[in-house]
Design goal:
- The protein has about 575 residues and is an alpha+beta fold.
- Helix content is about 55%, strand content about 20%.
- The protein has a 5-stranded antiparallel sheet.
- Helix 2 runs antiparallel to helix 9, helix 11 runs antiparallel to helix 16 and helix 12 packs antiparallel against helix 13.
- The radius of gyration is 57 Å and the shape is elongated.
């Protein structure tokens, strides 16, 4: 890291990247937090709308109950008579009037008791006061929280008990008229719906702080934990005139508000949300987002540092390579990956320059290759005279015995075989090498008629593979020297070849006598150690040495006894090696 920052160009780039990444990270963080805050405010707004809808529904339910009760009064003459009696200015007047109007043949109906049964209980305690008014005074029935009623008679209409304020509740006004008297108006019924009961059902909503505000400025605070400052905020929100918006409680203390005007009564439902409080409530989520963005920023910066440090090392490598060329040091160095930038262009040009200079020292490697080729030819020449002697002996013996055309065929096959042998090229294809082997096996068929048979089963994919010349025949010759039984009616030699996943396989099998275990162990040791001191198994050893010269370490040979009879020699050749050989020889 310290060496990386010592380079001026990279130091300036790193500072620019830091500023850019921090700017992007902070921008994304602010936008994410703003979106979440907007979503939380929207959720609170929806909660407030649901709560307001609940209030409106409750008020509508109460209006429907009151309307139904008014129909009950008009449809029940006895109840209507008792309601008319309740207009008396005193308790005594009410009791006297209802006794005067009562009939012994009918049950006595009480207006206050009927109110308690069909309104207070039915409305689940929301209607807490019912009053009947004339032009000068009013009589009221009031219910406590326990449903105990109390009566007030002859109170002036201006009495405090009849004040229409949202702190007490909402008042439904219904005109009372008597159809028997030509729809004469008897008075006015007022039904007080308690604000405490109406707003009690919505206190579990999560809408922040809420209140009901009347046009006169009265404020009913919904829920607990609200103070005088809250009332001032509700007044500001109501006076704002908009359905929603922001008001300021102080520096960096924005308050979101939303208002809903009632369609049932003249008031507004106002909800305020302290954004600072909302942020504190979701502090854990915001902290998680901050940590994610911070981790992402650090990861990006580390990636930038890694790439810029790698570029710095690459630049240092170029300078070092130039210094090595100046001192004529062409020692192979670890290859580096090229980048698609100026450094990559410089590196490629530098490599081209080194390749041009390297041409002046290639003679040493060419001489080594010539030396290996000479050694391979020497090994091959060790095989040819021995084979020539044996083959001529076969033809001579046969000619002495038969003196027929078979001898001519054998000589023709031998001539074709030696024409291929004396050709100058030392590297041929597997197909050509198999042709040489088949010519040799045909000669062996001529020598041992009705006693020897052979099969060649090699997949076409192996035929074009390059190989050294004349290495399969010594393997077959070992069979005739060590394993062939002339007295046996069926001597078989089989050549198989196939393509495996990552290599090619050639298999040479016979049904001869096999190899003794101790001798097999010695042969395997000689092949694995490339031991040239032993005079035995010269043909097999030379074949192994020549193939090893040609294919390198990616070639291997194994010799083993078959389970039934005979010997199996298996040769593995790597696909990667054969591709490289093909490119070098034919590309």
């Amino acid at each position: 890291m310290s060496s990386f920052l010592q380079i001026k160009i990279y130091r300036h780039k790193f500072i620019a990247y830091v500023v850019f990444v921090m700017t992007i990270g902070l921008t994304l963080g602010i936008l994410t937090c703003a979106m979440l805050l907007n979503q939380w405010v929207g959720d609170a707004r929806i909660e407030a709308a649901n709560a307001f809808t609940g209030v409106e529904n409750e008020l509508q339910y109460d209006a429907d109950r009151i309307e139904a009760y008014m129909q009950r009064i008009y449809s029940n003459h006895s109840l209507m008579d008792d309601t008319r009696s309740f207009l008396s200015s005193s308790v005594e007047g009410y009791l006297t009037s209802r006794l005067h109007n009562s009939q012994f043949s009918q049950p006595l109906i009480s207006f206050p008791e009927d109110i308690k049964t069909y309104l207070y209980s039915w409305a689940q305690g929301e209607i807490t006061q019912i009053s009947l008014h004339t032009n000068q005074y009013g009589n009221a029935v009031r219910f406590t929280d326990n449903g105990i009623e109390s009566f007030m008679f002859g109170l002036p209409n201006t009495d405090e008990a009849f004040n229409d304020t949202i702190l007490k509740g909402f008042v439904y006004r219904k005109k009372l008229s008597d159809g028997a008297l030509g729809s004469q108006e008897l008075g006015e019924l007022r039904f007080l719906v308690s604000s405490d009961q109406i707003f009690k059902s919505i206190q579990n909503y999560r809408f922040g702080k809420a209140a009901a505000v009347s046009p006169s400025g009265d404020i009913y605070l919904i829920g607990n934990g609200q103070d005088q400052d809250s009332k001032e905020l509700f007044r500001l929100a109501t006076a704002n005139g908009r359905s929603h918006g922001y008001i300021s409680k102080g520096l960096f203390k924005p308050i979101f508000f939303v208002t809903f005007p009632s369609t049932k009564f003249n008031f507004k439902f106002v909800s305020i949300i302290d954004l600072s409080m909302l942020i504190r409530q979701h502090a854990r989520m915001l902290l998680t987002i901050f940590l994610i963005i911070l981790t992402t920023m650090i990861s990006v910066l580390l990636l930038i540092v890694y790439n810029m440090r790698d570029d710095a090392r690459f630049l240092h490598r170029i300078i070092q390579s130039i210094g090595r060329v100046k001192t004529a040091n062409f020692t192979p160095n670890r290859p580096a990956r090229y980048r698609r930038n100026e450094y990559g262009m410089i590196a490629r040009e530098l490599d081209d320059m080194i390749q041009q200079l390297d041409k002046h020292i290639r003679n040493e490697y060419l001489l080594k290759l010539k030396q290996q080729e000479t050694e391979m030819k020497a090994l091959q020449n060790q095989i040819n005279p021995h084979f020539l002697y044996n083959t001529l002996e076969v033809i001579r013996s046969t000619a002495l015995v038969n003196q027929d055309r078979d001898t001519a065929d054998a000589i023709a096959t031998l001539g074709a075989l030696y024409r291929e042998i004396v050709k100058k090229e030392n590297i041929i294809s597997i197909a050509s090498e198999l042709e040489l082997l088949q010519k040799y096996l045909e000669i062996m068929e001529f020598k041992y008629p009705e006693r020897f048979y052979y099969q060649v089963n090699v997949e076409p994919t192996l035929l074009s593979i390059p190989t050294v010349k004349f290495w399969m025949q010594p393997l077959a010759e070992n069979f005739f020297i060590h394993g062939f039984n002339a007295n046996h009616e069926f001597n078989l030699y089989v050549v198989n070849g196939w393509e495996a996943e990552d290599h090619y396989v050639l298999e040479f099998m016979d049904n001869g006598r096999g190899i003794h275990s101790e001798r097999l162990k010695t042969v395997r040791s000689t092949l694995s150690n490339n031991d040239d001191t032993s005079s035995k198994s010269i043909g097999l050893r030379n074949v192994n040495t020549r193939l090893h010269f040609f294919y390198g370490n990616s070639y291997s040979m194994e010799i083993e006894n078959n389970e039934e009879a005979g010997v199996k020699i298996t040769v593995w050749i790597s696909k990667e090696v054969t591709e490289n050989v093909q490119t070098a020889d034919y590309g």
